[in-house]
Amino acid sequence: MNLVLSLLPILIVLVLLFIFKRSAVEAGVAACVTASVVSLTSRSFSLNGSQLLDAGIQGMLTTSVVVYVLIFGILLFHLMNEAGAIQTIAAFVAQATHHPTRQVLLLAVAFSPLLESASGFGLAMIVIAPILISLGFDRFKATLISLISLTAVPWGALATGTVIGANLADYPLQRLGTGSAILSVPTFFYFACLMVLVSGGFSALRKHFFEVLLVSSLLSGGIWFFNSFVSVELAGVFGAFVALAVELLFIRWSQRRPIDLSQKLETATGEIETRLSIFQAMSAYMLLIALLLVSRLVPSIAQYLSRTGVLHFPTYHFKLPLLYSPGFYLFLVCIFSIFAFKLSLPTVQKSIKQSLKQLRPVLLSTLGFVVMSQIMAEAGMTQLLSSSAALFFGPVLLYLSPVIGGLGGFLTGSNTGSNAMFIRLQLQTAQHLQMSPDLFAYAQNTSSSHLIMACPSRVLLAASIGGIPEQENQLLRTITFIGLGTVVLLILGILAAQWF
């Protein structure tokens, strides 16, 4: 009976999302309420009102880490979009080559991870799909490619989901980021091959196999390098920059001509001339990178920023260095963008309203899942579930860990939400099995991230953006099948890691 009660909050989430098709917000709130009721009424998991309140406050404080970064990441995207900077960058990338396969490599394999790493929330998909359609790609193919292009989710919004996972599990952030990058290497290549196959078939993949291998290797290698030696938060941005820059150089070398800097985006309906230069459009991202690099790589500055302006609640073991967090630098870059792009007050207000509208469901669902996780941990439910799973499955559970994480990402549409639900459970299970927690942590973080592209709510949004609502079911079936391939790759990756 105690095991059933422990499972009840998670079962509520699964039933609401998978059977009744309710939103992640509703599922998160319901799970939080269920965990509270069970912890207050069950003798085995009894928490008093004060302990329940403490768990709720702890969950809210943890969620604030996400909000601080995500609100300014989304706002930066909208400010740049209103200024035409996103269109300018996209036009530059599209104008670099007229070859469809290379346009996919530039836009979907390299540029999309850059957008996702800087902004998060699947905004890259919103940008990539319309551009591909305007370049003449079939609407279904363009929409599918834009979904597959969400490859850098572990580092989305400057790695907020990975940061939260590390915080909740009390696990070293750099180790989690680096391990996730290593386990993701085959998936980056897998996704790049799939995007080329969708756009041009097997003939395109055969002809451009070296380029596909080059770009995906640079992306995964760059992400691993910056996770290991610079900063987890910056890894996705830098890895994507490296892949984008080298592919542009490769295109210039292979075409034997300079890349056009006019930023005229040729579309099926004519030409769109952008008003910003590529250097102006990239200035906000370059400033963000510079600020983050200085704050991470100069020891005296890093120490000062991490000790100054710290939001500290010793009772809840919570610290948020406001000046060291990526959210602070996103805020500074937002201010810079307003003045650099000469945005009017109504435009800024419109961008803020759009950002708050997009933030609300993410905030509420994340809060629900994080508070649920905190209550379950404080009441002992997570410990019971992990010990029971260890007893029932034994060491085989390691190979099921990508399935568990992937299910969380598929249902919640959020790496943060999935980590909030399952990362504690996964690591405590490893402890009960007396196994290293590393592979459990990497599998959870990567599978929950890479299965987000198949989340039904994300697919619905993509179908709407691509103008193919009647093909939503076909899109969902296709991307779910692709997602299952990712889970298989991760399981094989775990087998390889154990072997070596």
UniProtKB/TrEMBL annotation:
The chain crosses the membrane at residues 55-77, 117-137, 144-169, 181-202, 209-226, 232-251, 284-302, 322-341, 361-377, 389-411, 479-499. It is found in: Cell membrane. The keyword Cell membrane applies. It comes from the Bacteria. It is a multi-pass membrane protein. InterPro entries: Lactate_perm. It holds the Pfam family Lactate_perm. The keyword Glycoprotein does not apply. Keywords: Cell membrane, Membrane, Transmembrane, Transmembrane helix, Transport. Uptake of L-lactate across the membrane. Can also transport D-lactate and glycolate. Belongs to the lactate permease family. This is L-lactate permease. The lineage of its organism: Bacteria, Bacillati, Bacillota, Bacilli, Bacillales.
